[in-house]
Amino acid sequence: MRRDRGIIVKLLLLLLLPLLAYLILPLTPYDMRISDPEGHFYIVSLVSAIGLAVAIMVGIVAAQMRNIKVSFLSLSYVSLAAMFILHGLGTPGLLTDHAAISGNSAQLSVLLSAFWLWLCSISGDRRLVRWLAARQRLLLPVWTASLIGFGLYVWLYPDMITLLHLRGDIGKWITTGLILGMTAWSVYRNLQTFLVSRFPLQLAIVYSSGWMLVAQVILVTGQIWMLSWWLYHFLLLASVIVIAAGIVREYLSSGTLLGSVKRLFRANAQDWIHTCMSPSVQQLVLATEAKDAYTAGHNYRVALYAVKLGEEMGLPSSQLRAIAQGALVHDIGKLYIPDGILNKPGRLTESERAMMEAHPMTGFDLCKRLGFMTEELAVVRSHHERWNGSGYPDRLHGESIPLVARIAAIADVYDALTSSRSYRAALSHEEAMRILLQESGTHFDPRCISAWERLTNDQQSFFQEAWRLSPHTDHPDKEQKLAR
User: Fold this and answer.
1) What is the pLDDT, as a whole number, of residue 79?
2) How many angstroms separate the first and last alpha carbons of the chain?
3) Has residue 479 got a pLDDT over 70?
4) Measured between alpha carbons, how far is residue 104 from residues 19, 176, 181, 231, 353 in Å?
5) What phi, psi does 96 have (nearest 5°)?
6) Which of 103, 377, 445, 478 could be joined to 406 by an S-S link, Cβ 3.0–4.6 Å?
7) Rounded CA gap, 105 and 111, in Å?
8) CB distance 481 to 443 below 8 Å
């Protein structure tokens, strides 16, 4: 709690300092007039063009990472940068004399950016987010093309932008109210998530949203060309920089940036899993496994087994990536289970079992706020559902259980059976396979079990290596048993 209070105090200081500087500067002789239309034209246009290129690159990578939150961030800063290019090009007295282009486009850039940031704070299971996530690969090209088309239209018919009423006496305050409401909600929701997950990206969104909020206040109340008015330009630039830094820390800090991006486009299961396991996800996985020494490496092995099974069943690359990411965090809800229950060697009581069976929903509630897509969330929520409907938490049965969750369930149970637990020793491959085949049609999808049986027969060397790397070697002869 003390650490959380320290983070909140630091956050408030970093958000309030620019606002205080804006309020105090006009009271001093340092708030000089810097009327430099040409400098404004070049600086704003050039920086915005660079920001647009970075935002587009982030959007391309986001589609490969299958994270809708990062896609929304990309669209937010594509909007900010594209409209700010128009703001720079529209500087009166240079390429055009229509002052309405520059003023209205600046207001519109913050409004559109705030809208996508607001979407970034909405849970991944909401209908609108699910609808957009299903069209993730189309979002960036369609939205970018729309902004370019709008910009060209406004340039040709500059009087039309005044119909938006973004700079009128009433319109600017309505727009400001919308922006402040959306950015404040984004700050609140992402701060909540950061305090739970400690993901750098959530903290970056908090700072970015907060600075955007302050920039909007300066935009509508500042006196043009004064030093205090220029401050909002730098705040919007800082907003873009901090998001880019957050994404790099969150997803691309393992090795070089180029190497991380390259791995996203490879078809190798291990590459996908290592790329999906960002430093923050890795910390969550390690924290989960630290609560139960018997499950060391469990999440990684489940992800690897599940991806291999998905390949055997001919799933497309998007679903394989979903399985990899979902399996890595499938047990994240166990962070909230007391150690005494999680590692209890004997039979659980009814109340203890209820707490244990709550972990899929707990993990789902956390992951849906971190930008995981629908299929990844399905793995987290439904990996304990059973084919006959006797599983949990939703008592789904048969084909109503998402396929990715049916696949992950087999990988999860197989690894659990072949690893030592607090209540039993590890089983051999043959013993585990016997149990899985017996549960076909009751616990597991028969089609998935058939594919799993083919996989283990065809790729014995792969399973031998997986067993060799397992920290639990209760059966010294398990490789020989598997080979038979």
Assistant:
1) 93
2) 55
3) no
4) 22, 12, 20, 18, 59
5) -150, 160
6) 445
7) 10
8) no
What does the angle CA 79 – CA 85 – CA 87 come to, to the nearest 5 degrees?
Answer: 100
| Structure token digits, residue 138 | 């189309």
Q: What is the length of the chain?
A: 484
- Region 429-447: what's the mean pLDDT? 93
Average confidence (pLDDT) over 359-376: 89
Q: What is the per-residue DSSP string for 75-86?
A: HHHHHHHHHHHH
Name the DSSP class of 427.
Answer: P
* Helix 460-469 × helix 446-458 angle, to 10°: 90
pLDDT in tens, 120-146: 888 888 889 989 988 998 999 999 999
Give Cα separations from 40 to 35, 72, 109, 234, 479 (angstroms).
Answer: 9, 28, 16, 12, 69
Structure-block tokens of residue 379: 């793995």
Is pLDDT larger for residue 257 or for residue 341? 341
- The residue with tokens 């620019």 is 18
Q: Are 140 and 59 in contact (CB under 8 A)?
A: yes
Q: Angle 224-226-231 (CA atoms, 0-180°, nearest 5)?
A: 90
Q: How distant is the alpha carbon of residue 386 from its chain centre?
A: 28
CA distance 463 to 430: 12
CA gap 482, 257 in Å, rounded: 40
Name the pTM for this structure: 0.78
Comparing 252 with 35, which gets the higher pLDDT? 35
Q: Which segment of 50-59, 78-87, 273-282, 469-478 scores lowest on mean pLDDT?
A: 469-478
| d(C-alpha 269, C-alpha 168), whole Å | 55
| Number of other CB atoms surrounding residue 477 within 10 Å | 10
* pLDDT digits 0-9 by tens, 353-363: 888 899 999 99
Kindly provide the b/e burial profile for residues 258-283, where b requires at least 16 CB atoms within 10 angstroms of the residue's own CB. eebbebbeeeebeebbbbbbbebbbe
CA angle 207, 126, 123 (to 5 degrees): 30
**Rounded Cα–Cα distance for residues 101 and 83 (Å):** 10
Reply yes or no: is the peptide bond before residue 393 cis, omega within 30 of 0: yes
Residue whose structure tokens are 């990062």? 70
**Do 259 and 214 contact (CB within 8 A), yes or no?**
no
Q: What is the DSSP letter of 428?
A: P
Phi, psi of 414 (to 5 degrees): -60, -45
Nearest to 377 by CA among 73, 124, 120: 124
| Most confidently predicted of 211-220, 312-321, 367-376, 414-423 | 211-220
Alpha helices in 384-483 (DSSP H): 403-417, 429-438, 446-458, 460-469, 478-483
List residues bridging with 421 in a β-sheet.
424
Estimate the share of the chain in helix, then strand, then coil, as percent rounded to the nearest 5: 75, 0, 25
